[in-house]
Design brief:
Length: about 150
C-alpha cells in the first residue's frame, strides 16, 4: 500500500524524516512517485494478507495503482529471490563438488598411508631377517674359531 510520508510516520511512530530516509536507504521501505507528482512510501515488510478486507477494497483509481505497484514490487522481489535461490543452488553444487574432491583426496591419502604401513612392515621384516642372518653368521664365525682352536 502507498502511504504519504505523514501517514507512514504516524503509522510506524517515526518522529523524524531522517529516520524515514534511513529506512529508504536500508531498503525496508521504498519511495514511489505517484501520478500526482507526490512522493509516497511503500513498506516492503507489510504483509498484505494481514490487512483487513475493508482497507483492501478498491475505492478510487489511485488505490488500484497502489495495488498494482505492490504486485509489481512483489513480483520483482520474487524474481530476485528466485535468482538468489538459483545462485545458492549453484554454490551448493560447487561446494558438493569440492567436498567430493576432498573426500577423494582423503581416501587416496588413506590408501597411501596403508601402503606406507605395509612397506614399513616389510622393511622391519627384512631388517629382522638381516639381523637373524647376521647373528647366524656371527655364531658360525665363533663356531669356526672354536673348531679351529679345538683342532
Amino acid at each position: 500500500m502507498k502511504f504519504t510520508y505523514k501517514e507512514y510516520m504516524a503509522l510506524k511512530g517515526i518522529k523524524s524524516r531522517n529516520t524515514l530516509k534511513k529506512y529508504v536507504r536500508e531498503g525496508s521501505v521504498k519511495e514511489v512517485k505517484g501520478e500526482d507528482g507526490k512522493l509516497y512510501i511503500i513498506d516492503t515488510q507489510i504483509d498484505t494478507s494481514l490487512i483487513p478486507f475493508e482497507t483492501q477494497s478498491i475505492k478510487s483509481a489511485p488505490k488500484i495503482d497502489s495495488q498494482n505497484d505492490i504486485i509489481k514490487l512483489l513480483n520483482f522481489e520474487t524474481e530476485n529471490q528466485n535468482k538468489k535461490i538459483k545462485e545458492l543452488e549453484q554454490e551448493i553444487k560447487i561446494l558438493n563438488i569440492q567436498l567430493e574432491n576432498k573426500n577423494n583426496f582423503i581416501s587416496r591419502m588413506e590408501e597411501e598411508i596403508k601402503e606406507d604401513k605395509l612397506n614399513y612392515q616389510r622393511l622391519f621384516e627384512q631388517i629382522s631377517e638381516t639381523n637373524k642372518t647376521y647373528q647366524l653368521l656371527l655364531e658360525n664365525k665363533k663356531n669356526k674359531k672354536w673348531y679351529q682352536i679345538w683342532k
